[in-house]
Structure formats: C-alpha cells, structure tokens
Fold these 3 entries.
Entry 1:
Amino acid sequence: MDLLQLKYFQTVARREHITQAAKELNIAQPSLSQTIARLEDDLGVSLFDRLGRNIRLNEAGRIFLQHVERAFAELEKGKREAIRITGKYEEVITVASIHLPFVSEMLASFVAKNPETRFRFQQGCYSSMKQLLKDKDIDLCVSAPPIELPNTTSITLLTEELRLLVPIGHRLASRESVHLIEAEKEAFIGLKAGFGLRDATDGMSRRAGFTPNVIFEVEDPALLHKLVRAGIGIAFIPALWDMDNSDPATVSVRIADPNCFRTLSLTWSERQELSPGFERFRIYVIEYFHKLQQRLVDAAPAVAENSRSIIGLERLI
C-alpha cells in the first residue's frame, strides 16, 4: 500500500465513479481499476460495492476513507511545518464565491497585509460550488443560500435586499418602491437555473402570484446589467450590486413585498485544517462583510431591522 494507491482511492471514493475519477487523475480507466483492486487485495477487504458499471463506497470503504483523509491532512500539515522553518512557506487558500462586485478588492486588501498567503479563486453558481465543496476542491466559499452538506459549517455573513433594476425611462423608474405583482407583465432578464439568485427570485415571484417572463438568460451578472441598460428587459439585483452603481441609464427600485431578501453565507469543511492563515482569512471575511452590512443598513434605514440579521461577531470568531 503506497501513497499513490491512497490518492487514487480517495478520488474514486469521493466521485463514486471510476470514469470521472480517471479523467480527474488523468490516467486510463483500466489502470485506475487495477490500482483499486490491488489496494483491496492488500487490505484484504472490499471497499466498494459493484453494481453493474456503477460503484458505491461500502461501510468498510467509508471507514477507511476517514482515516485516509486524516492521513493526508497530517502529511499536508507536516509539509507546511517543514517548509515554514525554512522561511519559504507560502500558504495557498482555495476560495470560491458567487458573483460579488467587491471580491477582488476584498482579496487584494487581505493579501496586502498577508503577503505570505496565495489564493486560488473560482467564481461560480451555487450548484457548482456545492460540488466543489463536496469534493474538497475548495477550502471555503461564499454562497447564497447557505450550502448544506455533511461535515461542513456555515455562518451568516449578511442579509441584503433584492431589488428591480430597470432602464431610466421605464414606467417604474420614478417609483421609490413597488409591489412585485406590478412587474407581472414585464420581460425579465435572469441568471440561468442553478444560480442561487435565480432560485430566490423565482420563489419571490411565486409568492407574489406570478411566474417571471424570462426572455433572456445569462451566466454573467455583468451582462445582465448591460442588457437592462439596453432596454431589453428588467432584472432582479441584490443590494450589494447596486451599492456603487453610477450608471445614469439604469435605476434600482425597492420591492415593498415582505421577505424579498437573500442571505450570504460562508461555508467550510469541518475537517479543514485550521491553519493560522486560513483562520486569519476566515475572520477577515466575517469582519469585511460585517462592515458591508452596516453600509447597507446606513444606505437603506427602512430595512434596517431585516438587514441586521447578521450573527453577532462574538459568536463567529
């Protein structure tokens, strides 16, 4: 039994799919199958149940995976400590986030104060980040709504209004607020299914009594704003997207209906080794969003009661 066998087993166990695991590991499928078979021979126990072409991790496999995960975590910890004493240590934190207009500023500010830390950053939709976290391909992520998976922890970062973005000449543009049903006949530009924002706004609309007429679906939130600016339709946007909007061709309109909010959360694996750099970054993110929450409250005092739902910092750090 060697480290390569254990690494291959770990990947197959996470995927429960030989073909996908072989593709991820960039090896031939027969070679991977043979490696797993040799590992099972070495252990004297089957780690997977074979169901035709499918495989499922059995009870012995689940127990063995827990020990393999801990072993690799200890090896990684040892590697960091060995490198750290040379003064050449650079910690890498893998982060994923939904589209947020200030993420680059947030990361740059942290790196300026912690130059020994490096980041791998991915931007994606809710469903893709959930899979990345499940596969342990990321250390932590910012999502809306919270990601619920076994052996993970999620905390609330902030709660923000969802608004309507309309062209400047639109019939609703001069309104301070509207009831959502007033937009029933409008053409909408929306994010594709799988984005948490799309799920949230579809739910809001159903509660208001209609299904939005989405005539244009996009994956890039920046394109959504441009299409509204061009007069193609209207769109739902979170308050954070609108906080520094200086575009004279669009205006955001607040929604008077109750519960037109979304909650941003920070999620990480409970098995994540809380290295000093990881812990510093986790606390930094919480404090950064706490300041953003206060800016939202100051900018829209009428919704302060709803927006103040952020968990107290003393409970998070």
Entry 2:
Amino acid sequence: MIMIIIDLMATYKQMGLDELEVWSSLDEISIRNLMRYIAKEYVILKTCNRFEIFAIMENYNNDIEEKLLGLGPKGKILKGSDAVRHLIEVASGMDSMVPGEQDIQRQVKEALKKSIDEGTSGKYLNYIFMKALSTSKEIRSKTRIGNGIVSIPQASVKILEGVLNSGKVAILGTGRVARTLLKYIPKNYDVNVFGRNETRLNEIEKNFGVRGINIRVLRDHLGEYDALFSALRMEGYILNSKDFKSNRPYVIIDLGNPRNIENPGDRYFVDLDYLREYISNNISIRLREMERAKMIIDEKLGVIDKMIMNYQVEEIIASMYKKIEKVKEEEIGELFHYIGEKDREYIEKFADSLIKKIFGGITKNIREGRYDDRTIEELKRILG
C-alpha cells in the first residue's frame, strides 16, 4: 500500500459550537491509542475553532474512515494534496474565522512540536508541517493577507489610543473579549476590570496584573475613568445616559450585541456597528489577497508531492536491499558448510561488489524515475 496523508477535520465552518465541543471534548488518551494503532504518524491540531488530526497511513480503508468519522458529528476527511493544501491554508490564516489571523501559525507550530516530543510525528509529517509553516511565512511576506487590523478588540484599542494616549480605563466583563482587550491595551493605561464572578476577577488580577472590582459599585466610581469598554453578554443596558453625571469617561466603547450602554450623546461613543465598518475594508483586502496566496500554495504542492514520492521510493529501495542482504547472508552461510570460515571476508567482499554492480544502475534508474500513486504501488509490489 502507498503512504497517504489524511486530515480528519471538525471546524467552525462545518458545525455549530455545540457540535464542535463534542470533538474538542474527546478523550485524548483514547484518540492517541486509536491513532497509534491505525497510523504511521499523526499530529493533533486543537484550537477554539477547530479539531483536526493529520495522519500518515499505509493501510487506509473504508473501515478506518468510518471509525474516524464516527468519533463526532459532521466530521470530514481530506486526503492527499487536498489535506496538504488545507494545512497550508490553516497555517496561513486563510481558513480562520478572521482572515489572515496570525496566532494560528503559532498553534500549528506548537502542535508539531508536541507531536515530535511525543514521538508521534516522523519524517513525513515533519516535512509537510515545516513546509506548510515556511509557505505560510512566504504568503504573509508576499501578500497583504496579514495587513491591517481585523480584530474587533484590537480595533477598539486602536481607537482608544487615537483619542487618549494614557489614562484610567474600566473594562466591564470578564469573558473572552475582555481578556483579549487586556492583551492589547498598552501598559501606559491604568486598567480596572468590573465583573460579577469573583473567581474570574481573581484570575484576571493574577494573569494580567490589573485590579478586579465587583460590578455592583460601578456607578459609584464611573466618573473616575477616562475610558470605558463594555464587553458584557447581556440583554438591555447596564448603564443609561442619566448614569453619566460628569464629563468622564471621555471615551465609551460598547462591544455588546445588543448594546449594553445607552449613548449619552456628549462624548466619544463607539459601538459594534462602527467597529465592524472600521475593520471591513481591511477584511476585504485580505479576502482579495486569498487568490495570490492560492497561487503560492499551488507552486508548493508540486514540490511537497515530489518529496513525499521520493521518501517512498527510498523506503522501497531500502526494503529491496534488506532482502538482498538477507539472501546474501543465507547463501554465504550455506557455502561455509563446505569451505570453512577462513575465506569468509573475501567471499563477502566479492558478494557486496557483485550486488553493487548488478543493482547500482537499477537503483540509480529507480531514483531518477517519475512517479505517481499508481507507479509507486507497482514499484512496491515488484521490489518492496
């Protein structure tokens, strides 16, 4: 059987969050035990928006496919060049929820490193993943796929910096959006986070070095802040226009959908609609750059396919020589029943020279051949 790369994929494009959670919650030990049994190599890529297993298999069949697809809902399997193309697109941010996302490249790199450390990735996937990562870097350097701000939290911080170069900032909420804001807000701002969950507030204090405050006292301290971010998930307003009794905060950025703060009308106010418009042009640019990126990928796929074929050819040649060596040892062993051990060294040298002269040219021609899946299969049948 020929080597085949497959990708078992479950991503945000195929299913809802509840269904994706089924894949993300799979028992990792059970998955690894299964993959050790059916795959020569494998790498697990797991992020908040995807669960994927890239694997090299030699005996792939319908039973294996059914077993893999039965692990969770709406899974999909890509094979061969389609799987490699998808991996490059993932590493380049082309398959991300936000086009051109940067962080996915790091996540792909970490997934590979983990697999190398655990011994589940070998020469095939090491090469394919490293080529995917280098191609993703080339795509980012030769296209504008990573240009401009396309993240809502990042765009909102950029707006803040355009209005105030320092000051005291309040963030309402302790969820993912609030934590993302904390990553982007520069150190020259004094940040406090308001929330209801004391455990989350304590975690944020520990992880980000900011102060956590119970949201019940928000109105009492509202006038102390220069800027206010709302990153809450709730229906209705947490603050009405009458709650703003002084001219502070000067900047209000409401990331709620629907809004959580009523526009007081007398200060710099930004909502989600404004932010979406702010980043839409950059997203359009990135989407247009996808075509240029695909052309780069097309060029690399041929190189990758050829190298994978070369790996298989070398394995077939190695297997052939192993069989030849075994026959040589058996025949020389039989011969020494009649002539004794004293001439063994000379006879082995003669046998090695004979093998080299007979098979050296054949090996050279094999290496210089052009192969596809069918011819590799035939070569393996004849020589392997």
Entry 3:
Amino acid sequence: MKKLVFATTNAGKRFELMALLEGALEVVGPEAFPDIPEVVEDAESFAGNALKKARVFAEATGLPALADDSGLCVDALDGRPGVHSARYAPTDAARIIKLLAELQAVPRERRTARFKCALALVKPDGWERSVQGLCEGRIAIAARGQNGFGYDPIFELPEGRTMAELTREEKAKVSHRGQAFARLRPALLDLVKD
C-alpha cells in the first residue's frame, strides 16, 4: 500500500482524514520521522502554512506529504483567531472559554464566523496542489455536543446544530475539511496509481 505523510500531530484531523480516505493509502504521521524539526507556522494564510508543512515533509521523507492548516475566523473579532486558532490558548477547552468570554457582549446575530481549511499535497518531485474549504456559521452562546474536536462545540451551523452535535458522516459532508478533501480527493487517489 502506498504511503502518505500527513504532517499533523492533531489526532482529530488525522482521524477525519483516515475516515475520508477509506483505507486507500497508508497514512503516517510526523512521529514516524522524529528527526524532522517542527515546522513553524508563520505564514499569514492557512494555505501558506499548509504548503510550508507539506514541502518540508515531502522533501525530508521522500514521500508524498499532505498538510492541513485550518481555523476559525470570527467577524466580530476582525477574523481572529484565524491562523492562530490552534495557539489561541493552551487547550481546546481554554480556547473555547476564551472565545466565549470575548464574545460575551456580542449579540447572536453578530456572531457570524467561518471555519477555513487549506489542504496542501506535495510530492517529492516538487508537484504541488493546494485547495481550500469553507464552512459558514456563527458562534453559539454556549458549548453543545460531544463529537468532534477543537471549536466544534461552539460552531453553530445555519440549521442550528453545532459541529459537535453532528455525526462524523454528517460533519464530513458540510465541514470545511470535508469540502477541501473532496476537492483534493482525485489527486490523493492518483497517488495510489503512481
């Protein structure tokens, strides 16, 4: 089976990707390559960070590398946390508490937000493909739901449920990562043929 390096230590992202790939590729994480230093995510865009990580891993491992950079952009906070979503606070729970506190005085109709995801696939020969997905919604007043990870419990879809209230299958159909993956899936499946 062909190998694909997924350049993330985020277990939630890896679980989602493996479910979407349906066993077509063997996915290995950065822990399989301990000599590769952590990639500093200092680009000003999700796409820039994803490409940077994928390039480093493809070059260092000689394997095709996939990287994801994604986050939450809240209109009332001028797009924050944005590319800093994972570093907004030390843990998922702390990030949710901080975000809800910052939005405490913001009425429901002004809590519009979107999840953005950039996926970058880079082959060792230098071939690159980058795609993006977007999911519109708003920030809920309080966390709800037991599924998902990250900001899912406070990201409310237009239908009224949070991402954490969706099943894995429902989330894959509407999420930013699911949309980006659908755009990149043909290129990923081509790896199986290479």
